[in-house]
Every structure is written in C-alpha cells, then in structure tokens.
Amino acid sequence: MFTMASCNGYQKTIGQLDHDNALVYEDGNLVSGSLEALTRHLVPTSQYCPDRTYQFAFLLGSRLFIRPHQLFSQVCQICICQQDLTSERTSKESLGKFGRHFMQLLGNWTDIFSYDFRDERLVQQLKDITQKVIAINPELRKDVGILMHNLFSKLSGLQKYEDLLTRINAEAAQRLLNILPTTDIYEVCPSPLVFAQQLTHIELERLGMIGPEEFLDAFSKEPTTETSYKDLKKTNNLESYVQWFNRLSYFVATEVCMHLKKKNRIRMIEYFIDVAKECINIGNFNSLMAIIAGLNMSPIQRLKRTWAKVNKDKFEILEHQMNPSGNFLSYRSSLKAALWRSDGANEDRERIVIPFFSLFVKDMYFVNEGCSNRQQNGHINFEKFWQLAKQVTEFMTWKQVECPFDRHPTILNYVLTNPVFSENSLSLASFECEEPVANYERQRFKRLK
C-alpha cells in the first residue's frame, strides 16, 4: 500500500533521474530511453494518452527487462503518485480525462496481453487500482465491469482450450495402446480439399491461442533458482503449435507406411500431394510444409518402387516451396502473394494466411539476437521493440481470421488422435513395405527387429 511519504520519495527519485531518463528521438521516431522513462511514457495523465502502437511495442518488448507484474506495479505507483489517488481531496474534476485514458491503457493491456493476468498478482493489482479510480470517478464502474468480464472470458477460453488439448492427447495416448486400425485418412475423407480445410481449422484454432508475449517469453533468459514458479516462462500454446506440426508430419508418414500393398501407398502419397496443393490455394503454408516434411522423411523417400509409380511433377512443384535456398525465397514470395490477396479480400476464405510457423519463429529469433537490447549509454534500444512489434502485429492479424469452412468432427478426431509411428517404428514399417537394399539398411533393420 502506498503512503504519501512513499509517493514523495518516488517523485524525488524520478526527478533525480530526469536527465538520464530522457527519451531519444530521431526523425520523430522514439529510438531509445531508460526503462524508467519508457515506463513513465506509458502512463497516461489528464492531458496525455500514449498511442496504441507505443503501448503495444513497449508492453511486448519490456518483458525482456522486467516481469509483467513488476511493470504493472510500477505503472500503478506512478498513477497513484501523479494523480494523488490516495488523497481525499482528489475529485473527478481534478482527475480530468485521466480516468478515461487510464481505462484505455488497461483495456489494451488486458485485451492484447490477457495471458499476463493468469498471474494472480496482476489480477489483484488490477482490482486494487481500478477500485481507486472508481472511488473517485464512479461513472467508470461500468467500463471496469466490461473490462473484467472480457478478461475473465478470455482466460476461461484459454483454460477450456488447454483442457481440450489434454483430453486429445490422452485419447491419442490411449489409442497407441490399441492395434493400429485398418482404415486410413483416404477412407475417412476421400476429398483432398475437405481434408485441407479441416487442417486449416486446426491451424487457425491453435494459432489463435498463441499470445503475442509467448514469442518474447521464448527468448527470455531461463529463470534463476530464486525465481518464483509464477515467473516461469509461459510458452505452452506456442510449443503446442510446434508439436502439432511435428504430429502432422509423422501422421503423413504413418499413413503411407501402414500399407503393405504398393498400390495403397501410391494412393496415399498422391492423396497427400493433392492435399498440400489445396493448402497452398487456401493460404495454409504451415500444413503444406508439414506434409512435405512428412513425405520427405527417409522412411518414405527410400520407397523407390513406390515412388516410381507416383506422378512426381506435382510434388516437385510443391517441394520447390520448401526449398531453403535464398532464405526460403520461393516460400516468402508465395507468402507475399497470399498477404496481397488477404489485404484486398472481401471473404474470410480469402483472408487466410497461415505462415510456416517454424520459419516465422526463426525470423523473430534473429531479430532478437541481431539487435542489441541496450545502447552504449545504457539506454534500452527501442528500435528493437519497434521491429519485434512489427512482426508480431502481422502475426496478430493472421490469427484473428475465422475459419469459414464446415467442420467435420470425424475427420478432425482422426487426424488429432489416430496413432502415429515413432521414428523407429516408421523405419521398421518402411523396411516391411520394401525390403532393405543397401548394407546400412540391412544392418538397421536387424537392430530394429
């Protein structure tokens, strides 16, 4: 709890730091500043409200330097002291537009970075500061109520999603204990287009649950032994999405290798090639890459007699999309075309852009590693914040698209829970499909048997 003495001490400290904490601009753009100055720049007054782009960039990038609950505490401290919120003399008139401005900041924070408020410390701080504002300006009670309702609805949705993933994973684990079913995805869903649409449902659902802060949490330093469990990095949704990519790749390989008859393997490979083509047309590059990765696994690629009967022309065109040369130049060109289409789209199906996620994370990583956190004078390099915010803003746009296709629960359940082979099981199944030829294959087959 804050007393006037603590506020006076805080204001004195801020005043002493004014010179060192000055914000630095170049050509009208904020490029650096101390953490204290940048934090004060976030705090609204009756005459000033930080613009949304600054709020987003700072709330995103600041977690490289300070925990969200610590930043929120500092913001509240500044507000209490600057606006004299603990004084009985403070009135609605003396606050002016501060209350509205402050609610805008809280609204953006709880809406965009809502996962921060899974920390009960932040929730308590939020309740405390909003009650102080309401006590002086009761007209804001409704706004606070809406803010709290929206926040807890988002957190409830996240919990339901995580519970669903737990149930899906449990069902998949249970089915691993059973004999592999005789059916395959072609029998469950003969249409490559419909299957590509179902994959898009999964992609958009999982993409949509990733919080923007998870990218920065993934880059932050590992917590020390003194760090509370509450401060551990929270990247569950990002990691679940990466695991989905790996599952889809192994799912594709499993669906091919589970067939001992060559004609069935040919059918499956050609089916997945057609699915991948439909994924391109939709703008679902993540599923496209996962399918290509699955077909390029060594247990699939070694099936020479099978591939000899496959029409490879379409596959080579698709494989060109995954060519890493020129830093994935071909893929990036296709992504730009999809973005151009999305910008001018009138329907949701034309707005879909699902990037190759591993490459997107890699690009974010290089921005983080390629730009220093601080300048030589100790100031935070805010240009880095702008760059990170630019990339995450694109991600925020992609994940907000509603999937326009009909859902087929049977297909979704099959792809999410049907057993997939492990790496060793895939190799063994591949050798049973086509016997080992080279000496190293025969040696591996002996070890696996």
From TrEMBL:
GO molecular function: guanyl-nucleotide exchange factor activity
Domain N-terminal Ras-GEF: 26-156
Signal peptide: none
Biological process according to GO: Ras protein signal transduction
Keyword Ubl conjugation appears in the UniProt entry: no
SUPFAM superfamilies xref list: Ras GEF
InterPro entries noted in UniProt: Ras-like_GEF (IPR008937), Ras-like_Gua-exchang_fac_N (IPR000651), Ras_G-nucl-exch_fac_CS (IPR019804), Ras_GEF_dom_sf (IPR023578), RASGEF_cat_dom (IPR001895), RASGEF_cat_dom_sf (IPR036964)
Domain Ras-GEF: 191-436
Keyword match Transcription: no
GO CC terms in record: plasma membrane
Pfam families attached to this UniProt entry: RasGEF (PF00617), RasGEF_N (PF00618)
Keywords: Guanine-nucleotide releasing factor
Protein name: Ras-GEF domain-containing family member 1B
Organism of this sequence: Ridgeia piscesae (Tubeworm)
